[in-house]
Amino acid sequence: MPALVNNYGESEVKLSPYFDECVADIHLLIRRSYLCSKRDAGCEIPETAYRYYEGIFQDMILETGTMDYFPDASDPEGHALARYPFEHTWLCKKTFMGEQGRTQIGSFFENTLGIQSTETDFPGFIALKRGENGHPDVLVVVLRGSQAESFQPLHGMLGSSWRTNYAVGKEKLPKAIFGFKGSMHYGFLEKELAFRQTLLHSIYDTIINEQVDIDNLIIVVTGHSQGGALAQITIVDLVKNLGPLLFGNDFDNAKHNRFYGYFMSPARVAGSKSTVRHIHDLVGKHNMIRHSTIHDPVPNAGIDRIFERIAILDPINAIFAYHNIGYLALDDSGRVLEKALASEASYPNKYDERLFTEFNRDRYLMVQIVKNKLFDSYKCHLKAKGCSRLMPKYHYWSTKSDLKMARAIFRAGPLGGLYWMVSCWHFGSRANNEGGYVFDPVLPDKNIDIALIRGRLHKMAKTMP
User: Fold this and answer.
1) Domain count of the chain?
2) Is residue 127 in some structural domain?
3) Statement to judge: residues 233 and 145 lie in one domain
């Protein structure tokens, strides 16, 4: 099979055609993962009141051209529409089960705050696309990101999903499972270890019952935000433990390219550079992509990133530092904001006329100022360096439009300005039935090869004096 990323160091990056043809659908599947375990805060028993519960307990087939995420739902209110039609037919298996909320100080939440430390979770599902015209079958492992639900403590910010994020200490990898010594983010590792058995069972069940041709199979592991972090750990687990069982004892994913990792807006999980090297040797760096914008807060979070410019703090930073894996695919921040505005404006019955004539007017102003600010600064930077115009808009804080941008942000409202902009850069908008800022599959670029070129040039720009 071809690698996920080919010709990375050359002028034209090429994606695996079997992945490229599925990208738009994968974005829709990621959105579906949030709906599968979305709970209704208005119910008296929120622990069991899943809004789209039939996505948890039964398999469903999403036909080509459908926009219905749950076509077999018996309750009319149990249906949810995608932002655009599916390009392929997918068999979506029922969700697998796990646990979330494990922390190093779980007793503190239970004994001091009176908050249940962990809870049962449905972190994702398996989707299968049959190959056509000689193309292989594609099995996608879809992992859901964080959820903040209003009936949880502090409106979800102290809920079990977010406590998984907060458990930032480094944990040694169990060598018996992963095959090498290393460290990972404690919360994400514990969550992956909690669902790995049910995930493996779901994969086996799909392969056997659907009579999948293993010799003609590619497995994609994907997720957004926390789901992207979990996907980074999960692909290592699957390559090490499932790969030899499916493809033979001599299986080497770095050569055979059967597992692809596609991580959207992911938090970093690898606790050391040696862990990154082991992951790249096992999975193949060319088989993993992390997809985000320059200003996405989640991939850039961490104490080490805040103080990375202060050399004297390097020893301290190393204690807290987490590291990226795979190749970076980068979206243009200004373009993402424009798409978010268009997406929200086109969403049916979402906003009234007053909001768009007053509230959104300042948003449009803000977006234009941001775009002009970035363009002016990166244009000057390119002129000084003699670089390609594809160079990302990285050096921009020194321009005179800082105050104008700040003014536009705050004019757009307390949640409509900075918070809205940051949410969009995390590929989230309010074009959804659930309210709030959730993953919007319209926002990410579908031309991943172009985004990979942006990512490569961005990395080059950061190393320039």
Assistant:
1) 2
2) yes
3) yes
C-alpha to C-alpha distance for 443 and 320, rounded to whole angstroms: 31
What is the rounded distance in angstroms from the CA atom of residue 119 to the CA atom of residue 96? 14
DSSP string, 351-386: S-HHIIIIIHHHHHHHHHHHHHHHHHHHHHHHHHHT
252 and 381 in one domain? no
> Cα 383 from chain centroid?
34
pLDDT digits over 387-438, tens only?
444 444 433 333 344 444 445 455 444 444 667 778 888 999 878 777 677 8
- pLDDT at residue 393, rounded to an integer: 41
Per the CB < 8 A criterion, the answer to whether 447 and 428 are in contact is no
Residues 204 and 268 in one domain: yes
The angle formed by the CA atoms of residues 117, 118 and 121, to the nearest 5 degrees, is: 155
Based on the domain organization, do 308 and 173 belong to the same domain? yes
Other Cβ atoms less than 10 A from the Cβ of 181: the count is 12
CB proximity list for 310: less than 8 A, separation 6 or greater? none
Instruction: Tell me: do 327 and 353 sit in the same domain.
Output: no
Distance CA 444, CA 335 (A): 10
Triad 44, 49, 55: Cα angle to 5°? 170
Find, among 153, 128, 121, the residue nearest to 37 by Cα.
Answer: 121
pLDDT in tens, 415-424: 446 677 788 8
Both 422 and 322 in a single domain? no
Q: Radius of gyration over alpha carbons of the chain, in Å?
A: 22
How far, in Å, CA of 258 to CA of 239, rounded? 9
- Residue 325 counted as domain residue: yes
Residues 151, 126: one domain?
Answer: yes
Are 345 and 299 found together in one domain? no
Residue range of the domain that includes 401? 336-444
- Strand 60-62 vs strand 90-92: parallel, antiparallel, or unpaired? antiparallel
For residue 110, name the pLDDT band (cuts at 50, 70, 90). Answer: low
Q: Is residue 449 part of a domain?
A: no
